[in-house]
Amino acid sequence: MSQTHPITILAIASECKGIPYLLEAKRQGARVLLLVAEEAAHNPDWPMDAIAERFIMPNLSKQPDITYAVSYLARTEKIDRIVALDDYDVATAASLREHLRIPGMGETTARHFRDKLAMRVQARDEGVLVPEFTAVFNNDELNDFLHRVPAPWVLKPRFEAGAVGIRKLYEADAVWQAVNELGDQRSFYLLEQFVVGNVCHVDSLIWEKEVVFAIASQYGTPPLAVTTGGGIFNTRTLPHGSASSQDLIAANANLMRVLRQVRGVAHTEFIQAEADGRFYFLETAARVGGANIDRLVEAATGIVLWQEAARIELASVRRETYLPPTPRQDHAGLIICLAQQEQPDLSAYNDPEIVWRLPKKYHAGLLVAGADYGRIQHLINSYNERFARDFLTSAPPKSNVRTQI
User: Fold this and answer.
1) Residue 1 — very low, low, confident or very high, per pLDDT cuts 50/70/90?
2) Cis, peptide link before residue 64, omega less than 30° from 0
3) What letters, b where the CB count within 10 A reaches 16 and e where it falls short, cover 34-61?
4) Which tens digits make up the pLDDT trace of 238-258?
5) How far apart are CA 64 and CA 66, in angstroms?
6) Which residue from 25, 106, 224, 285 puts its CA 20 to 30 A from 274's CA?
7) What confidence score (pLDDT) does residue 83 get?
8) How many CB atoms sit inside 10 A of residue 156's CB?
9) Which residues partner with 265 through β-bridges?
10) Would you say 190 and 227 are in contact if contact means Cβ atoms under 8 Å apart?
11) Coil, strand or helix: which one is 100?
12) Three-class SS of residue 244?
């Protein structure tokens, strides 16, 4: 498709992330406009050479302010695509696309990737395995659920990212107390049966309703346990061709079809239930996985998810066919924890498989990669014990920190 103006992408960002996306868009000749939340606007990591113009707002989700602002911008800018760089911007971007009639994920599909209740209802209605759950709108339905489904349960906010704001409850009275305390916010929550098992994730690229790349991984400590109780976060890719990997990739492909994802990137979590060994859908997001999972994928496969997301978007604008790079078949493992020290000393960790170290105050983190799955597994397990001795702080995680995984 020929056009007389450069492709213009409006990137919406509540946090500083998606830098490879911006760089790739610029490299391909696109004009990148950044609409950024005030608290993230002055982060020195933003690649200003790749950003044509930057616009700052106090709150990117406040309506109708955001619609007014972007509509005003559209008077002088021909915006071809709108992209959300943060999970909290997915719904905002969808609303703006609908309002300005810009191609891309609309509000209904965005609900499937942003609203924990909507994604569960859609998945369940299409025959996907999900843990027992209920909305908490109606007292009788909630009471029936508590009598029918054994404890424990988890009370989940519908629009938070990852494990943020989730509460684990063991008694019906505690559920009623928690629900009543929510007041007018009650309808923005759901209740789900807590399933014991191994939590896995699939990170994938989708082009014209088909998953064209996917890799399956498994967390060590489940994200909910890390977010609510502290501890060490780790994840590692699963062996290529293993039964678990194949089952997860197939389940993810079916889920993307069920949730109507047309193109883009997705980070999806499943749990392999200890009781029956089957994989149950937990949640998904139309974004690159947080907690440096994009680096895990790159170390194992060579594929940079943010960069490929930009390539997908630009191919769509140009009406070209997108083809993902051929992935490597290596393995990778990632480990991160809150540290007691401001600048943790990781010099004693010198195995040749280490390919990246987390440069963040009061955090210790390493990424290992190589062709030998057993070696990667061994390193992550041994680092888990060593991190607990060398770095792990006993301080509980801050409740106001948004942890996206």
Assistant:
1) very low
2) yes
3) bbbbeebbeeeebeeebbeebeebeebb
4) 999 999 999 999 999 999 999
5) 6
6) 285
7) 97
8) 25
9) 205
10) no
11) helix
12) helix
Domains of the chain: 8-104 (3.40.50.20), 132-193 (3.30.1490.20), 198-390 (3.30.470.20)
- Tell me how far apart the alpha carbons of residues 184 and 187 are, in angstroms, rounded to a whole number: 7
Task: Classify strands 8-13 and 210-219 as parallel, antiparallel or unpaired.
Answer: unpaired
Residue with tokens 């994928």: 297
Given this model, what pLDDT does residue 228 score?
Answer: 55
Residues 153-175, mean pLDDT to the nearest whole number: 91
State residue 58's pLDDT score. Answer: 96
Please report where in the chains the tokens 């082009």 appear, as a residue: 207
- CA-wise closest residue to 222 among 176, 270, 280: 270
How many Å apart are CA 243 and CA 245, to the nearest integer? 5
CB 33 within 8 A of CB 52: yes
pLDDT in tens, 95-123: 999 999 999 999 999 999 999 999 999 99
Decide which of 165 and 103 is more confident. 103
Determine contact, residues 30/9, Cβ cutoff 8 Å.
Answer: yes
Distance of alpha carbon 121 from alpha carbon 15, whole angstroms:
29
Q: What are phi and psi of 65, to 5 degrees?
A: -55, -45
Q: Are residues 210 and 257 in contact, defined by beta-carbon separation less than 8 angstroms?
A: no
Find tokens 């395995």 and name the residue.
129
Q: Give the three-class secondary structure for 209.
A: coil
Both tokens of 387, joined, read 């991190």
Whether omega before 152 lies within 30 degrees of 0, making that bond cis, reads yes
376 near 262, Cβ under 8 Å?
no
Q: In 259-347, where does DSSP find H-type helix?
A: 293-301, 305-318
Q: What is the identity of the amino acid at 220?
A: G
| SS3 call for 172 | helix
Give yes or no for residue 395 having a pLDDT over 80.
Answer: no
pLDDT-derived band at 5 (thresholds 50, 70, 90) equals confident
Q: What is the pLDDT of residues 276-308, one digit of tens each?
A: 999 999 999 999 999 999 999 999 999 999 999
Structure tokens at 157: 């906010």
